[in-house]
Amino acid sequence: MSETITELGLTPEEIRLPPLSRGGCRSFLEWSLSREPSGKLLDWFHRRTEGIPFFMEQYAGVLLSSAGPPDENSFPGNIHALLVARLDRLEPELRKAALSASILGRAFDPRILQRIGSDEDMEALLEKGIVERVWERTPDGQFSFIHILLREAAYNLQLHSERRRLHTRVAEEMAAIWACQPEKAQSIAFHMEQADCSEKASLWYIEAGRYAFSRRMITSCLNQMKKVLVLSCDVSRRLDAYRMIYDMHASICAWDEAEKAIETAEGEDNLTTEDRTRIRMMKVNLATNLGRPQEAQDLLEGLEEVNPELRPQVLHHRGRILMLQGSTEEAMEHLLAVHRELLNGTPEERLVAAKALGNASGCMIRLGLLEEAEKSLMHVSAYAVETGDLIMETLAAGNLALVYKYLPGRKSDAKSMMRRHLELARRTGSRLLELQALGNLGTMLENEASSEEVFGLLEKALKLALKYGGSEALSVSQANLARALQRVGRFERALELIDASLQVCMGEGLVVNQLDYAFERSHILMDLGRLEEAEEQIVQIREMSIPDDYTYNITLCRGKLLRLQNRNVQSEELLREGLKEVTGVWERFDLMRELYLINRDRTVLVECLELGEEAQRRTPCWYLRVKLDELKKDLENPPYHK
Question: In terms of pTM, does the model score above 0.70?
Fold first, then answer.
């Protein structure tokens, strides 16, 4: 119980009741016997019960009218024998019900007892049990033995064969009543195990593990899977357990443990070709999560042909690989097609469909399709809540926060959703999700002000990324902090971090991130006055395969560099050509500002201010406000050509 309480994020507290003193025993005997006990009886009673209330109740219950201690030869010699004697004194039908109830555990459901118990009036027997202090009714309508020792005594009074028979009946009745209640799977599995039905028990333990995993009860999930591996000889079922163990460790970024689960699965005997493809799919998942698209792609080759059942997963991972490789639009179209194909399939296919739509939404955000992304993410979030998938709900909240961040007039929604994202991420126990939430919240707050809170969030995200994150998460965390440092003029540290991000991206083939960070590096180098290095960086960028939506970035970098090199005519020509191709307010503001810094033309300045104010209304940002204030000073004290 304390383990479950801890997994729910609460702090277990244990209350210990000290044994009663001799005086307490005297008061208890006076109350229970309705007379004052003799000194010898009191001494005997205190020695035998050690002042433990439950023992006191049981011993007092069998004391008759004797003023002194009972005959040692006829009185039960220990608490267990006393409890057995007490059970034997119950009327036959109540005794039978007590023995049957003990199979269910200390707490039990009267409906199950009714199905396996006596033909007598069960309600009457339950009431008799309360009067005889065998059990008590709990607030939720269940029953519980007065003490665990009484339940154990009743349980051990039965032959092993009888207990096994009753456990079988209990498991069957529970399965009939609770077939659609996954939270009951562990109880059913336990009774199947006690009935020596190992394979059936392992099936229910799989279900119990899935339920525990969906509720982020990580330790409980691991324990269920260990049970499966002990009980089952079925290779396919054992692989289900290894996959669950892998998923559990992956969800909290325990990558070494996740990889160990794959290696252990590979060591199983009698693996079929299909079994080996399932293990390969686990490797694909690991490579994708760690931001290794080429490795994932190599592992995917031929999987679907060998094991057609893996088609949904194969399709989904191909979309994720396209995302990592920077083919954003192609990835989005592919993932949307996967969603449409699997939407009305089996529960497993519906899960993949929801994941595919979630990833497609991420592509939409990158492509600026914010309204479409919001609609898709609302569907994903609703599915996650319906199925109890906390991780999916967390990811959807994070992406919704980004959508609101970029949508005009949704700033408060963005902040609220980002804090919700962080709350959910911490509930999952996943350090990877927590660091993503910290990074998103940090960059959001950084737009409002460059504060100690912002740098605290971004630094913490980076620490978590270094310890738990994959390649993509690490590069993003480094770049987020670099961007914040650049804005406050800490260029050397910013350059150090952006260089580290680029190294990660180049090593893992993360094309889109590599492009983004290369552009940022060129700006930092220009801020440092290292123009030759900045020019080399821009040349390297232009030699890469650049998507069409990066035209603005190239124009801005080259225009700024030409200006700093005093090649103003070339810079102005380039910027004016770029303005013909760009429609976004932010992008036009950046290009127009560069143009103004070259020609100091009042008309350009006024248009630039108008664009900046519009951008500020859409997405308020302290750094943009600083730029606008500088431009307004120029308008008031003209350095420009009239």
Answer: no
